[in-house]
Specification:
single chain, globular, 20 strands, about 250 residues, mainly beta, 4-stranded antiparallel sheet
């Protein structure tokens, strides 16, 4: 019943309450937390499964920042803990990141020619100081599109589906992993055009059962809700004609 949005205008995390789970039409603004002291261009956020830690991937600092929450899921209780340089963030910077559910791996997608999806392993779960990048020769996927702009990514809970926002073609791209959590096994499945809703898709998120998709659009500063007739298959997504504006916060 909580929704979190990262704003890169005011460099803050915004928290919203939903009176009906997974229905963004019932969202209302609650509070915010500034991450400006850590990065001037925050790219993505992620939470530990129990809500006691928050992580922010910073594009300016090219690092992963860790915060402790004294009250789970309440960002007003967040305090900065530590950070770790993400040494694969070259060229155009990051297009987002996500943890494996057990906290032992962190995945990042990057912009620029020759860039792709990288895996970073944590020897101690959820402790960014123990994170090391896996060599590109062993666990890496290189984008082969002639040009692209990765602006956000999402991996399904079982590690078998990967999605990213393409703000050149205004679509959500869908890839599958033949071996769960092994990004070197990624292959293209399909895509969903979202340009009718927003011309700059910057973030994507899915309901835990894969039947709902949520798009964060940078052009209109809105969150858009979609229903998938086949779970996790993005090409079957249809817009619910439901959106929620976050423009007044960021």
């Amino acid at each position: 019943l909580e929704m979190y949005v990262l704003g890169n205008q005011n460099d803050s995390v915004y928290q919203y309450n939903l009176t009906t789970a997974w229905d963004i039409s019932t969202a209302s603004y609650d509070q915010s937390f500034s991450v400006s002291s850590q990065d001037s261009f925050p790219q993505s956020i992620h939470f530990k499964s129990d809500g006691t830690k928050m992580f922010m991937l910073g594009s300016s600092g090219k690092d992963l920042n860790e915060y402790d929450l004294s009250t789970a899921w309440d960002i007003s209780t967040a305090s900065y803990s530590q950070n770790k340089t993400v040494n694969t963030m070259r060229l155009g910077g990051s297009g987002g990141g996500q943890f494996k559910p057990d906290g032992t791996a962190f995945f990042t997608a990057h912009n620029g020619s020759g860039e792709g999806v990288f895996k970073h392993e944590l020897s101690t779960a959820w402790d960014v100081s123990t994170m090391t990048s896996v060599p590109a020769t062993t666990d890496f996927f290189k984008f082969t599109d002639s040009f692209f702009a990765v602006q956000g990514m999402f991996i399904s809970p079982h590690g078998d589906n990967f999605y990213w926002c393409d703000d050149v073609f205004n679509s959500i791209k869908h890839y599958s992993m033949s071996t769960a959590w092994d990004v070197s096994t990624l292959s293209s499945v399909g895509s969903k055009g979202v340009g009718s809703q927003d011309g700059k898709p910057f973030g994507v998120f899915f309901k835990t059962d894969g039947t709902k998709m949520y798009l964060c659009g940078n052009a209109n500063d809105k969150i858009y809700q979609y229903t998938l007739s086949t779970a996790w298959t993005v090409s079957t997504a249809s817009y619910d004609s439901i959106n929620f504006s976050v423009a007044s916060q960021d």
